[in-house]
Write a structure and sequence with these properties.
The chain is α+β, with helices and mostly antiparallel strands. It has one domain. The protein is about 20% helix and about 25% strand. It is built from seven helices and 16 strands. Strands 4, 5, 8, 9, 10, 13, 14 and 15 form an eight-stranded antiparallel beta sheet that branches. A six-stranded antiparallel beta sheet has the order 1-7-16-11-12-6, with helices on both faces. A hairpin with a 5-residue loop joins strand 11 and strand 12. The protein starts with a strand and ends in a 5-residue tail after the last strand. The N terminus is likely disordered. The protein binds 2-acetamido-2-deoxy-beta-D-glucopyranose (NAG) (2 copies). One 2-acetamido-2-deoxy-beta-D-glucopyranose binds next to loops. One 2-acetamido-2-deoxy-beta-D-glucopyranose (NAG) binds next to loops.
Length: about 325
Amino acid sequence: MGFVFFPRSIVHYVLLLFMFQCPQGSSASRNIAMEQQVALDDHQRIRAEHEDDKGMHPNHINIILHNLQQHDNLSPHLQVHPSPLMDHMDPSLNVFFTLNDLKLGKVMPIYFSNKNFSTSPRLLTSEESNSIPFSLSQLPYLLQFFSFSKDSPQAKAMEYTLKQCAQEPIKGETKFCATSLESMLDFTQDVFGLDTQLKALTTTLLIKPTVLLQNYTILDVPKEIFAPKMIACHTMPYPYSVFYCHGQETENRLFEISLGGDNGERVVAAAVCHMDTSQWDRDHVSFRILNIEPGTSPVCHFFPTDNLVWVPLLDHV
Ligand SMILES: *[C@@H]1O[C@H](CO)[C@@H](O)[C@H](O)[C@H]1NC(C)=O
Ligand SMILES: *[C@@H]1O[C@H](CO)[C@@H](O)[C@H](O)[C@H]1NC(C)=O
């Protein structure tokens, strides 16, 4: 479930390990989560597929679009649509809950996507990612580089990601987009301080669900991970792995929750509760789903399997 990073030299060692393991789709690389998906303007999800693990061949990247929506609903500031119509609720929105739901034996419908990580966009090394510009002003060049026409859904997705990444953080927020695992670790270490050992939490499907939306039962008393600070990294739609990482100053509570599905599925899920939602957009989809008003109740959500949540490693955890 969690894995732990020790001082920097070891970080880089572990990093290399992950990179070598990635093409084989080991559980470690699954934790690192190379798949990218985020809701687009047209509610499409994009998934880039790389055909060659040995080198960067952008022209061979195929992008497959799916009519699913998930990730940018998880952040109050990473939103495309203020208010999707709820009469055709997207099943992937079944990730929100309230603090009161966090009880042993509680049953609730949850959506966990069961992804095939071998078709995920590629995680680049920092050398590779540094050789490709990552800015909105370079979009025409990038579209040519990746062979996408400017009206294609892929072009929209890239524009969306570059825009989200270029946006200034709001007050009290730390954010960055990482285009390689190394840059993600560097940014994260900068936020927490170089001397802080870090731990990454993920949602792990121990026994994979075949039905993506189903009822799950909380099997153990939810375990709270004490974290004075956290940085959550969400994957973004792009031809290679891009993580949108952010942290807020407002109080958050992080949990590790053991879940059992109706057909023997087992999930160890990472979830966060945002304790203060008073500043959120009142059209945020979670308020409609939970039927609450901003600021009246914490909003919690499960993390998808391809997200990473970084927290300091504390002795008493
Ligand atoms: C994942 O996708 C690859 C390539 O499309 C395919 O060969 C493989 O069988 C898939 N694995 C699973 C578990 O579906
Ligand atoms: C979950 O269980 C409830 C009560 O049995 C049922 O009404 C609902 O349809 C179930 N939801 C899913 C997604 O299976």
